[in-house]
Design brief:
Elements (H helix, E strand, L loop, with lengths): L5 H14 L15 H4 L10 H11 L2 H5 L5 E2 L10 E2 L30 H5 L4 H20 L31 H16 L12 E4 L6 E2 L2 E2 L4 E2 L3 H8 L1 H8 L5 E4 L3 E2 L2 E2 L5 H10 L5 E4 L3 H7 L7 H11 L8 H11 L5 H17 L23 H14 L1 E5 L13 E5 L23 H6 L3 E5 L13 H10 L2 E7 L20 H11 L4 E6 L7 H5 L3 E6 L7 H9 L41 H4 L17 E7 L3 E5 L2 H4 L11 E3 L9 E10 L5 E10 L12 E10 L4 E9 H4 L2 E2 L5 E4 L1 E7 L3 E11 L2 E2 L2
Parallel strand pairs: 3-7, 6-8, 7-10, 12-13, 12-14, 14-15, 15-16, 18-27
Antiparallel strand pairs: 1-2, 4-5, 8-9, 11-16, 17-20, 19-25, 20-23, 21-22, 21-26, 24-25, 26-27, 27-28
Helix pairs in contact: 3-14, 6-7, 6-15, 7-9, 11-12, 12-13, 15-20, 17-18
The structure holds 2-acetamido-2-deoxy-beta-D-glucopyranose (4 copies).
Length: 775
Amino acid sequence: MGGSSLLFSVVLLVLVVVLSSGEAREPFACDPKDGNTKKMGFCKVSLTIGERVNDLIGRLRMEEKVRLLVNNAAAVPRIGIKGYEWWSEALHGVSNVGPGTKFTPPFPAATSFPQVITTVASFNLSLWEAIGRVVSDEARAMYNGGTAGLTYWSPNVNIFRDPRWGRGQETPGEDPVLAGRYAASYVRGLQGTDANRLKVAACCKHFTAYDLDNWNGVDRFHFNAQVSKQDIEDTFDVPFRMCVNEGKVASVMCSYNQVNGVPTCADPNLLKKTIRAQWHLHGYIVSDCDSVGVFYSNQHYTSTPEEAAADAIKAGLDLDCGPFLAVHTQDAVKKGLLSEADVNGALVNTLTVQMRLGMFDGEPSAHPYGNLGPKDVCTPAHQNLALEAATQGIVLLKNNGPVLPLSTHRHRTVAVIGPNSNATVTMIGNYAGIACGYTSPLQGIGRYAQVIHRVGCENVACGNENQFGPAINAARQADATVLVMGLDQSIEAETVDRVGLFLPGRQQDLVSKVAAASKGPTILVLMSGGPVDVTFAKNDPRVVGIFWAGYPGQAGGAAIADLLFGKANPGGKLPVTWYPHEYLTKLPMTNMGMRARKKAGYPGRTYRFYNGPVVYPFGHGLTYTHFVHTLASAPTVVSVPLNGHRHGHANVTNFSNRAIRVTHARCGKLFITLQVDVKNVGSRDATHTLLVFSVPPPGGAQWALEKQLVAFEKVHVPANAQQRVRVNIHVCKLLSVVDTSGIRRIPMGQHSLHIADVLQHSVSLQAAALGIIKS
Ligand SMILES: *[C@@H]1O[C@H](CO)[C@@H](O)[C@H](O)[C@H]1NC(C)=O
Ligand SMILES: *[C@@H]1O[C@H](CO)[C@@H](O)[C@H](O)[C@H]1NC(C)=O
Ligand SMILES: *[C@@H]1O[C@H](CO)[C@@H](O)[C@H](O)[C@H]1NC(C)=O
Ligand SMILES: *[C@@H]1O[C@H](CO)[C@@H](O)[C@H](O)[C@H]1NC(C)=O
């Protein structure tokens, strides 16, 4: 939140008092006991939602309307409508970061899943949707009990563009297609699939090109992101478009920053034209908290507050997180900067979502989810899914020997060392709630072995070596040593970007000294959202194993222990590139460019555009077994039918070395299907994550693309068994590239598919125009 006002605080206070009782919720509106409102059109469930919304807007006065444009929407008592707090959060579990949700009895806690960056590393669509379903069960239960809202400003789907970003932990990583699939799956889980009966309303944020918080004197409230059309189209917009088109999300949030000189919340090209007209958002657009106030007061984008209010609403903003629009919109209308019809347009979008949530259907217990209550929160099944998510998301980066998994027979005593060795709240990262309970790494490992616990460093900052001695002694005695190191919210967080990629303070020294002294094998477990340059440990033969646990959620310690001792088999893959620290020297965080500019010494960003040295690449992740892949079938030539209307009149053009606009191709059912046999030749049943990348035909200097992820498939293969995996690749969506004007095109010619790092296959795309199929 940037600014604040008396109005905002007063309404908030009233809200807290009303909600803290934790009793069953009164109807929000249209109380069946209220004979007056029962007969009003907006309360009649027999009418369409559109008719009900119009009826309601027709009854509202201007001063009432403007007070519905903000997150703490005011009550309209004369027609039986209560106040509503729109701001709740559920990034990876119901959270109390927004004022709409409180943990009070009988809802003292909620299931706390791993931070998103960890969950994404599972590459498992059905897991993401299952988590969304559990979170929305718990959210609905808490709403029914009067302690939470129904509008959740989650997920965060910004691309993790720069490894220093403090909020990278909240995101689904650096790949646009991965991020978009995550967004669509999680949103489906949260909202359910009945468009007219939303379970809860999700929100994809922060639109767009927002991925800098506070770096080198530049903060998000003042940053003007200079972004090319090419990068917008093939990187920054992709997860949002997929969230709207495939996830059918009920809301999008615009960000604090400017894009090419215009605040995103005041840009009609971004809001009205892109999100609403092109993508057909069925829902509302909300500002980040006090974005409108920020572009007026901090960015001085308009000279009066009324102009700021008018610009935002005319650009397509429907709801302000913050008081600004409630305070200034009526004056903007009086001054003629905005019409009442513009205000009505915003209300149509917010009220429609409230209707779809059932908020105007009277008695909340009559809703399909009206019977969810305290018994549905923190259930054993829900907590088990939190463990499952951590187990699937944790990534095995190194396993020399292989020494891992540890054995309960040979490794009876384990030295558990490090500032994160007994972590609890650190494991749930930011935008969390109050967890049902925790299993710390120390407790988890204690289930398998006798532990000798020494912190080594008091905290992750690890400013001195005072406690190294006892840690080194513990490692000398134990059969194995596990160091749980890394970061926490003091190093990377909202408003805190990192300055470097190394482990903080003396952590590296602690790892090296302990490893050198250890009697048994030493395993390093890293907790972090962003990547860490652990080249020293990768190269240290004494550190035989490395796990990246991300922020693994309430059950993180149990998952770490299950993986260490082989109860579970690691199958996670890195959703971001792990760069060496030196990478940063050529890369101001403020430079938004995705593509490398070799002559200027600019290395490019993410595995799609950067081909320099890495500590660990995007997609890296080992397992305890071994898989052999064979390509069972794949096409070698695929013709791309062109749109007859444009190319029908006769001219025999040679398309074979051109890149055709996606809008000129008949994309509908144009898929490439691969069949890959995956054989588990090891002795353990295991889950395998098959990644397929494509490399466009040579000579595409314009796209400057190294490769891109086109498919990921998750498959369970028992020991010594084989599974056939079918991979469908949508040609227009996935094999297309974007030119420097921001136009998406399909290059004709040889596309190379890289399957699971071991197989390569070429497919030739050939344009088929004028009924002539060249093949
Ligand atoms: C994906 O996750 C779901 C939910 O935990 C699980 O049931 C399923 O087995 C996972 N898929 C694979 C292939 O492991
Ligand atoms: C581990 O953390 C828990 C919870 O914070 C605490 O109760 C316990 O004493 C800690 N254990 C050790 C050995 O520090
Ligand atoms: C056909 O295309 C070629 C090459 O683009 C062009 O030179 C020629 O003028 C075109 N002919 C007609 C009839 O449009
Ligand atoms: C089309 O262009 C390609 C590459 O320049 C060439 O190999 C091919 O022979 C051409 N085909 C026709 C029909 O002109």
